[in-house]
Write a structure and sequence with these properties.
Blueprint lengths: L4 H5 L4 E10 L2 E11 L4 E5 L6 H8 L7 E6 L2 E2 L4 H7 E4 L11 H11 L5 H11 L15 H12 L6 E5 L7 H15 L4 E6 L2 H7 L2 E6 L2 E6 L1 H5 L16 H16 L2
Parallel strand pairs: 3-8, 3-9, 6-7, 7-8
Antiparallel strand pairs: 1-2, 1-4, 4-5, 9-10
Helix pairs in contact: 4-5, 6-7
């Protein structure tokens, strides 16, 4: 079932109202409301166990909600699950790649499963976009964590889904790997893909998101742009503070210097 493009343009890519979910006596979601605009990056923040992954699983048709209304790309998640699945891609907390295959073979496999033309050309284009061309012929077992995650995200883009769910995409990655993933997310979001990102890393949301919501005890307690959220706090006082480099700054500088020296 198709929906006119003019109608979709005026509807949020993701629309959620009164979403509830319980597991036996544990109430995980207690009435979640949120809208995600088309072509935007929306970060859903929350501590472990806040219900972020549960929201994503419901929106991606992997779980059934107890109550509430959910629509993705104009389709009702409860009654039009097939249309929703054709509109989305989901990248979970752990890279879903085949370590026996090469990076290129992983991409070709997914393109073939989606019955797309020229799977080899699709794979080569994604390897280039995610800076994996030189590693494309290597088995994924030899990849670093950041490379595996970039490959995983590249696989999720096959077929150009209008909506992508990224559930804790940088969990377990080192600083370099996190920066690689951030750059990849920014690049494909700039091309019009809608992204719902769940994370517990505040700096990740600050770097990537157009809007940020905080999920706490099953409800969205704040929702807005970074500027709007900062306005919730008292005005900052102007003071002279000597800025010291962070440990991440030191790590990236040292590793970068060593890499440059080895390449000479």
């Amino acid at each position: 079932m198709s929906i006119p493009a003019t109608h979709l343009a005026h509807e949020p890519a993701i629309h959620v109202r009164g979403l509830e979910k319980s597991f036996r006596d544990l109430k995980v979601l207690r009435g979640v409301d949120l809208d995600v605009g088309r072509g935007s990056i929306f970060a859903l923040l929350g501590s472990n166990g806040a219900g972020k992954t549960t929201v994503v699983k419901i929106l991606s048709t992997l779980l059934t909600a107890d109550a509430g209304t959910t629509r993705v790309n104009g389709f009702d998640v409860a009654t039009q699950a097939t249309d929703v699945r054709e509109s989305i891609s989901l990248t979970g907390q752990f890279a879903a790649v085949d370590e026996i295959l090469t990076g290129r073979e992983n991409l070709v496999l997914v393109a073939r499963l989606r019955h797309l033309k020229d799977p080899g050309l699709i794979a080569d284009d994604l390897l280039r976009r995610f800076s994996l061309t030189e590693a494309g012929a290597r088995r994924v077992a030899t990849y670093s964590g950041g490379m595996r995650r970039r490959l995983d995200i590249a696989m999720s883009l096959i077929g150009d889904p209008p909506v992508i769910f990224l559930d804790e995409p940088t969990t377990g990655l080192d600083p370099e790997g996190r920066l690689e993933v951030w750059q990849a997310v920014k690049e494909f979001a700039a091309q019009g893909t809608t992204v719902l990102l769940t994370t517990q890393y505040l700096d990740e949301a600050e770097q990537l998101a157009d809007r940020i919501a905080v999920l706490h005890e099953g409800r969205i307690i704040v929702n807005g742009t970074l500027h709007e959220l900062k306005q919730l706090l008292p005005p900052a006082k102007v003071e002279y503070v000597e800025k010291q480099p962070t440990l991440e700054d030191v790590f990236l500088t040292v590793v970068g210097a060593r890499t440059e020296k080895e390449n000479r």
